[in-house]
C-alpha cells in the first residue's frame, strides 16, 4: 500500500524542482553577486567647445514611480512584457533619475560658457530644459539575449516669455553584452551616454534657432 505522506512529499519535491527549472529558463542568468553600480565615468571628453551662450536651468530629471527606487529593472518580453522585475542582489547606487541628472549636469556644464543653473541655485536663467525619463530598463527578447532601453522626453522652455520653445522624444537602445545585471549596467550606461550627447546637440540647435528669430 502506498504511503500517502511519502507520495505527497514526492509530488511536492517534483513541483519545487520543476518551478526552479522553469524560473531558470524564463529569467536572466541569475549568477549575480551582491553589487552596487553607477553609470561609471563619462566616455565623452568633457570639452567646452562652442556650446551655447544662454544661461540654462537644468532641474532634476523626473520619472514614473516604478523608476524611483534603486532597483535595476528588467522585462521578459517573451513571457510577459508588461511585468517589471528587479534584480535581487544588484542595485544602483541611486535611483536612475538621480544618476541621469548628475550625468546631464556634468556634460552640459562643460558645454556652457556661462555655466548651468540648478533648482537650488536661486539664479535667474534664460531657458529651462526639463527631462522626463520614461524608460530605463533591460528587455529580454529571449533568455540569452537582452538590450537596454532608455527613453525620455525633453522640453525646452523660455523663461522670459513662458513659452515652449521645442519638445522631443528620445529613444536609445543598446545591446547588452551579457544576459545578467552586469550586462544591463554596461548597456544602460552606454545608452545614457548616447542620450546625453543627443540631448546636448538638440538643445544647442534649438537655442541657436531661437536666438536667430
Question: In a few lines, what is going on in this structure?
Answer:
By secondary structure, the chain is an alpha/beta fold. The chain has helices spanning 4-26, 77-80, 96-111, 181-212, and strands spanning 35-37, 56-57, 71-76, 81-92, 116-117, 127-142, 145-158, 163-175. It has one domain: 3-Layer(aba) Sandwich (Rossmann fold), CATH 3.40.50.
Notes on the protein architecture:
The chain is of the alpha/beta class. The chain has a single domain, classed as 3-Layer(aba) Sandwich (Rossmann fold), CATH 3.40.50. Helix content is 35%, strand content 32%. It contains four helices and eight strands, in the order αβββαβαββββα. It has helices spanning 4-26, 77-80, 96-111, 181-212, and strands spanning 35-37, 56-57, 71-76, 81-92, 116-117, 127-142, 145-158, 163-175. Strands 1, 2, 3, 4, 5, 6, 7 and 8 form an eight-stranded mixed β-sheet that branches.
Helix and strand arrangement:
Elements: H1 4-26, E1 35-37, E2 56-57, E3 71-76, H2 77-80, E4 81-92, H3 96-111, E5 116-117, E6 127-142, E7 145-158, E8 163-175, H4 181-212
Parallel strand pairs: 1-4, 2-5, 2-6, 3-6
Antiparallel strand pairs: 3-4, 6-7, 7-8
Helix pairs in contact: 3-4
Amino acid at each position: 500500500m502506498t504511503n500517502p505522506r511519502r507520495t505527497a512529499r514526492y509530488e511536492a519535491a517534483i513541483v519545487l524542482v520543476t518551478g526552479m527549472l522553469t524560473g531558470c529558463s524564463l529569467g536572466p542568468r541569475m549568477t549575480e553577486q551582491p553589487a552596487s553600480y553607477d553609470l561609471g565615468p563619462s566616455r565623452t571628453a568633457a570639452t567646452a567647445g562652442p556650446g551655447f551662450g544662454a544661461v540654462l536651468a537644468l532641474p532634476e530629471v523626473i520619472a514614473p514611480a516604478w523608476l524611483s527606487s534603486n532597483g535595476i529593472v528588467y522585462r521578459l518580453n517573451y513571457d510577459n512584457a508588461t511585468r517589471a522585475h528587479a534584480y535581487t542582489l544588484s542595485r544602483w547606487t541611486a535611483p536612475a533619475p538621480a544618476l541621469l541628472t548628475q550625468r546631464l549636469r556634468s556634460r552640459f556644464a562643460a558645454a556652457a560658457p556661462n555655466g548651468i543653473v540648478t533648482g537650488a541655485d536661486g539664479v535667474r536663467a534664460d531657458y529651462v530644459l526639463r527631462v522626463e525619463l520614461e524608460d530605463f530598463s533591460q528587455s529580454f527578447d529571449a533568455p540569452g539575449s537582452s538590450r537596454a532601453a532608455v527613453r525620455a522626453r525633453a522640453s525646452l522652455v523660455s523663461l522670459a516669455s513662458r513659452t515652449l520653445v521645442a519638445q522631443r522624444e528620445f529613444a536609445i537602445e543598446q545591446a547588452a553584452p551579457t544576459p545578467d545585471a552586469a550586462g544591463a549596467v554596461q548597456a544602460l550606461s552606454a545608452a545614457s551616454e548616447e542620450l546625453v550627447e543627443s540631448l546636448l546637440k538638440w538643445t544647442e540647435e534649438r537655442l541657436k534657432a531661437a536666438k536667430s528669430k
